[in-house]
Amino acid sequence: MNSFGRECRVRACAVVLAAVAGCAGPPPAPGFVSKADQFRAAFPTEPRVIDQPTGGIPSRLYTAEDVNGAYTVRAIELPLAPEAVAAASDTLLNDAQTDLIRSVGGTLAKSRSVALAGTYPGRAFVATVPERGGVLRARVYLVGTRIYKVSVFGKAEFANSDAATGFLDSFVAQE
Fold this sequence. Notes:
Elements: H1 3-22, E1 32-34, E2 39-41, E3 48-51, E4 59-66, E5 69-77, H2 82-87, H3 89-104, E6 107-116, E7 120-129, E8 134-143, E9 146-154, H4 156-159, H5 162-170, E10 172-173
Antiparallel strand pairs: 1-2, 2-10, 3-4, 4-5, 5-9, 6-7, 7-8, 8-9
C-alpha cells in the first residue's frame, strides 16, 4: 500500500473515532456532591463541612468563602414522620426562612414561594443586613424529612452577581 492510501485510512479512522467520542454525551454537571446529605451544588471551591446539631437535631453546614462573601448549604434532618412534615410544610419553611435571616441579623426584603425540581416546596428570599453592609439571598426547600437552606451572603455586588445566582440555581436534591 502506498503512503497516500495509508494516510487516507489514518484520516478515516480519526474521523470515525472523533464521531464515536462525540456520542459519549456531555460530561456530568460540575459541582460538589454530598452523599451523606443527598445534594449537589456548584460551590466555587471545595466546601468546609461542619457538623452543627441543634437541639439534638442533626445538621451539617457546607460553606465556601472568599473575600467577598460566602456560599452555603445547610442540611437539617427533621426527627418527624414524613406525614407530619408534609402537614406542617408551610410552618417549617417559614421558620427556616426566619431562622436564616435571624442568623445574619437581617431584615426580610422580599420572599416568594418556589418549588425545587417542580416537586419540593420552598421559599426564595432576600434580606438586607445593614449592620454588616450585606445582602442575604437564599432558598429553603423541604425534601422528604430534610430541610435545605441554600444561601449566598456578602456585599450587594457579590450576593447579586451571576456567580451567586449560578450557585443558587445549581442546587439539586438527590433523594
